[in-house]
Amino acid sequence: MRTAISLAYLVAAVLFIVGLKQLSSPKGARNGNFIAAAGMAIALVATLPLLNFTRAGLVIIAIGIVIGTAVGAVGARMVKMTAIPQMVALFNGVGGGAAALVAVAELLRLGQHPGFTEAFPSVFSIVIGSISFAGSMIAFAKLQELMTGTPITYPGQQVVNGILAAAILGFVIAILAVASVPFSFIGLMVLALVLGVAFVLPIGGADMPVVISLLNAFTGLAVAASGFTLNNFALIVAGTLVGASGSLLTKLMSDAMGRSLANVLFGAFGKSHAGAAAVAGKEGRSVRSGSAEDIGTLLAYSQRVIIVPGYGLAVAQAQHAARELADLLERRGVEVSYAIHPVAGRMPGHMNVLLAEANVPYEQLKEMDEINDEFKNADVALIVGANDVVNPSARNAPGSPIYGMPILNADQAKNIVFMKRSMRPGFAGIDNDLMYDPKTVMFFGDAKDSLTKLVSAVKAAA
Amino acid sequence: MSNELLNEITFFVLSIFVGIEVISKVPTILHTPLMSGTNAIHGIILVGAIVIAAGASSPVTIVLGLVAVTLATTNVVGGFVVTDRMLEMFKGRQQKKQTTPPK
């Protein structure tokens, strides 16, 4: 029986690896997800035969699976495409929480003086799992706009975080060296939860994808640690795979934003004075706003139009309206393409998904490197709800929090139409010089309404 | 060091290399779905949750087991379903691309 279980775990591990491989290529991605899910099913079923279930055990497992399936399936199905990033944060957080609770249960079972090889991974799992849980909840709250997306900082923040980390270390040593009693590991869990909150608070909402990816890797490691405690091969391999691939993915994601991971995580500290200087002097500058008719005519008589979509397009569900406008222009002989910034929206790939939903032809979607040189030949750059990804201060204002991020060269187009709900700064909370550019026309309103107005205006412009 | 622990450490170290190697060529547009997919895979903690819940008898272990199984199941089911929803979109586009007649 043991052999059969080990073999089943081996099959599951292979399916996870193949699934991950497929998930990282556009063709096989969806199959990859199914393959990984099959691996999960095999690992779960293989675990059951060796267990001695108590009656209470059977009941709580059944209840837990029913509730969890309902919450997970309904949550994942019902959520709007725009809210998917925070759902990922939520599902990551609960995984971290589960890992921490499994470790707590094991410490309880092991008694006051557990062996080091069991106690150490348990303690590790409690700390990392709790940080991941609490951090993910804050990331969720920031993305769901239950709290402000701007970094929350206060004087002495690093000192407070340092003290928290030291206190956690103290509890860890006490548990390993003195005695493992409920008081100590509950204290450990509470402190780790607080540290998880404190860790994510100073990070801006626009950086949440990177944070979620990091916490995802954390949860993987916590799961692997639980595997060491329970001597379970499936947990060790699957958890470690996620921990390792998640760490690399986190690095790739911050690279895509042109920043180091340290800059993303700790960039808010010491930025306050530079930020204040950058904001000063913005008063009294004027922006030009245009009517739908003006802009419609401009578009109708252009030769090349580049649409720059951003989060505003996602919020307004304006992808169909954008496509309608693009089709209309194409029929008039205007060449239309979409410039996709790697981090447009709230997550990498967000815009590709939305525009694919509206059946925008694949050939019209251009990645940043591919299209940046074409802006100078474009008659109009039509910015639909994007902001930070076209902000020139990423190029020329060293004090800016987004300095160094590669941006789309929308400012090089002959005309810029900036569609926005209001003058409110973007998600990163910084002003955008492009709005004050003499070539720029602002067009205020909800992205979908505005695009619909432009469609009528283009139709009217004979 | 026991043989079992030695084996576990071997799996752990080898898995690190496999995990890094296997996703190293991922294109930017798949970052989010890949993160979501790995997120579902660490739902394997459900195995651990079931192991601790199976033998639950005292009130404390019953509560711990119930919460752990519920959270872990949410992670697994939600993780895979939400990843599939994202990738649904990509699949449509792939097909469209293939059906375009060559000129």
Radius of gyration of chain A, in angstroms, nearest whole number = 25 Å
Radius of gyration of chain B, taken over Cα atoms and rounded to an integer in Å: 20 Å
Note the quaternary state here.
heterodimer
Strand % of chain A is 5-15%
SS class of chain B: mainly alpha
Low-confidence stretches of chain B: 92-103
Q: Considering DSSP H and I runs of 4 or more, what fraction of the residues of chain B is helical?
A: over 70%
Indicate the overall shape of chain A: elongated
Quickly count the helices of chain A. 18
Q: Tell me about the biggest sheet of chain A? A: 6 strands, parallel
User: What characterizes the major β-sheet of chain B?
Assistant: none
Number of helices of chain B: 4
Describe the secondary structure blueprint for this structure.
The complex is a heterodimer of chains A (462) and B (103).
Chain A: H1 2-23, H2 29-47, H3 55-78, H4 84-110, H5 116-143, H6 157-178, H7 182-200, H8 208-230, H9 233-256, H10 261-266, H11 272-279, H12 292-300, E1 304-309, H13 311-315, H14 319-331, E2 335-340, H15 350-357, E3 365-367, H16 368-371, E4 380-384, H17 393-396, E5 415-420, E6 440-444, H18 447-460
Helix pairs in contact in A: 1-2, 1-9, 4-5, 4-7, 4-8, 5-6, 5-7, 5-8, 6-7, 8-9, 12-18, 14-18
Chain B: H1 3-22, H2 31-41, H3 45-54, H4 59-99
Helix pairs in contact in B: 2-4, 3-4
Explain what you see.
The complex is a heterodimer of chains A (462) and B (103). Chain A has 462 residues and is an alpha/beta fold. Chain A has 2 domains: 86-266, no CATH class; 288-460, Rossmann fold, CATH 3.40.50.1220. Helix content of chain A is 60%, strand content 7%. In chain A, strands 3-2-1-4-5-6 form a 6-stranded parallel β-sheet. The longest helix of chain A has 28 residues, at 116-143. The termini of chain A are far apart. Chain B has 103 residues and is mainly alpha-helical. Chain B has one domain (30-103). Chain B has 4 helices and no strands. Chain B has helices at residues 3-22, 31-41, 45-54, 59-99. The longest helix of chain B is centred in the last third of the chain and has 41 residues, at 59-99. The radius of gyration of chain B is 20 Å and the shape is flat.
